[in-house]
Write a structure and sequence with these properties.
homotetramer, mainly alpha, Tetracycline Repressor, domain 2, elongated, DNA-binding
Chain lengths: ~210, ~210, ~210, ~210
DNA sequence: AATGAATGAGAGTTCATTCAT
DNA sequence: CATGAATGAACTCTCATTCAT
């Protein structure tokens, strides 16, 4: 994990250590959940002493914040990079879904920490993460709106997008690569159902929402 | 909440009290999450003393178990009752979605306690709840399979059903009756997208899975 | 167990019930120790409700008091009855030992409750039991003194008697009827060692104590 | 108290602190008994915070285990050292009694914690302490058997040794240095009575036991 | 940079006991 | 006579965090 997206230059020792700790912490939060995980668990898994951990972050909450921020930022960076080359509205929605699944299947532990520990953070930390999440949601919603406009479709944006987010955020409770194939396969299946779904809905001019 | 489904006759004082406590506890778990919620919170919210609570259940875990069991059993009872009168395969899938949303919009606090505190329970309790959850999943999967067979459709059952569960289980993170309308409206929208989606997917004979 | 030594007439229902409860309680105290034993244990073992127990005694302490008092009084009554027919000093000491072992092998659970929960009781209860214990000790000490005087023996009374009490009070930690024979056999062996011991000690006129 | 018999080199700060805590705990257990003594009592007596205590041992049970193990091991080490220089069978039995009394009069609080909290420990802890106790008992029994063989005596080994253990384990309920003299005096008296006792018993060839 | 030692606050749970019925 | 329901107080133990070194 590459924390500190601020610099692209060689990371300092501190940054490398921190990244290592965040990785271990992600695994522990994945396993036991944020509340159940104790600082002692983190100490054990990272090999640092309990007090040593506090050199790298001020509190358990800050640690969760750093993890969530990192993964939100990274998935969005990758999304933006990927969308640069795609213009077709439907393909852009597919790109979003594929990007999400590809990244989070590769980082499935982080994935659960993002979706399950959704509302743990309070105050400043909570607000920042909520903002990132909203931004990510808006990215997806925009792509769907673009497609709707381009094809003159008719469905409830919010419910459709939220339904899609549900599908892809719930993945961590069931996804098994041996049963379900790789990320590409799952992304194609989910994209197909979702896109055929919204493209086929046609209830006449009264339905829908901007 | 009507605990003790064994008898339909007048509930005893104990049963009524227990039901009242489970209701309060559900609200507290909804608000703070199971781990963060303390027995002292439950004491406060229920008006009973800390020790008094233990007259009604042996442990905090047992309490969560009682809640989860109750709601799983009830939603399945209602599903079975509703399916009695429906024969058309598509309508039966719609009935499932509608039943789920109707019940859990009416009991949205319990809803979060079911989906968020998914894997808290261990051992016997965990096994029992997992069995109920599997049974509920199987109900839905069967209905989808019936539809697939009836219409000779072509899609990945598991991914489709899991995607649907994601959509309806994620609801508790965003549903707002003032914005999204009542349960009927949401159920119709989600059903439309899902059903059009799976009915339109046609990738040729190589796709799909039993 | 026959509580309430005050009347020799037909015991009332209350007395019979109380005696039954004391018996059960003795068994529980024997098994778990006084501190570890809970009122719920007593409720379970006696078949009465928790609150029902309090009709028979005011507190857990009083219950222990009643048990200890009963067994101390009974063993002393039996001792006095037995000593009536014995005049030889040595035989009187043997009678004490035999009486003690016979009674407490027959009531070995009570026996542990007497010796292990020695110093639990406080205040009035503690004082009364301590007085009974002192009386019992004095009985034994007198017999030993009589023997010493009659035979003009020479040993430290207090240490000898305390040593004897140790031997017979420690019994509950090791006595096993299948290995050690019945009470008579053990009493004879212990009496032999003790009596030969004190009768053979002769360190000249400076030793001993009144 | 010198815990950690593994090294005879300078004890670490941790070891010294632990030893200090065990000392305080021994005093508290002596005073109130293991069950009645609370962790708060130990905290108060040792000057550490409640949580601080848990830096040194994992549980109240482990604490009792550490205490009991220490004293059993130490008294046996001392016994073995002392027996090295004694060959006469009678003197060896006297050495055992003297060693026991000397050590436990000097550590009379620990003494009660050993004998009164005999059967508190369960499972692994209980098994280990029981094994040490058995070893200590065997040491004594061997010495008595040696004497019996050397002198061709005739008495029941088990009852005699158990009686002796009763005498010396019961000491903590009555011993008062001002009344009873020092350990040497008491040891001599008890040894005299016991040894004269077993040496004088002669009931003919049918008596005794291997 | 890193740690052993320490802590205040609070967790879930159990206790002997009471009281309305 | 007997009980289900209830409680205040106290229990052992764990938590995230700090600080001297």
């Amino acid at each position: 994990m590459n924390s500190g997206a601020t610099t692209r230059l060689a990371p300092t020792r501190f940054e490398r250590q921190l990244a290592r700790i965040l990785d271990h912490a992600t695994a522990v939060f994945y396993e036991k959940g944020y509340e159940r995980a104790t600082m002692r668990d983190l100490s054990r898994s990272s090999g640092l002493s309990l007090a040593g951990l506090y050199h790298y972050f001020e509190s358990k909450e800050k640690l969760l914040y750093l993890i969530q921020r990192h993964y939100f930022k990274t998935v969005m960076e990758r999304l933006n990079a990927r969308l640069k080359d795609v213009t077709d509205p439907e393909e852009r929605v597919r790109a979003f879904i594929h990007n999400h699944l590809e990244y989070f299947v590769a980082n499935f532990k982080a994935y659960k920490v993002l979706s399950h520990e959704d509302d743990v953070l309070r105050n400043q930390f909570g607000a920042e993460i909520a903002a990132l999440k909203r931004e990510y949601y808006r990215s997806c919603a925009s792509l769907v709106e673009d497609l709707k406009r381009a094809r003159q479709l008719n469905f409830n944006n919010r419910i459709a997008v939220m339904g899609l987010f549900g599908s892809i955020n719930w993945l961590h409770t069931w996804y098994n690569p041996r049963v379900d194939g790789n990320a590409d396969a799952v992304a194609r299946e989910i994209s197909d159902v979702f896109l055929k779904g919204i493209c086929s809905v046609a209830r006449g001019p009264e339905g829908g929402q901007t």
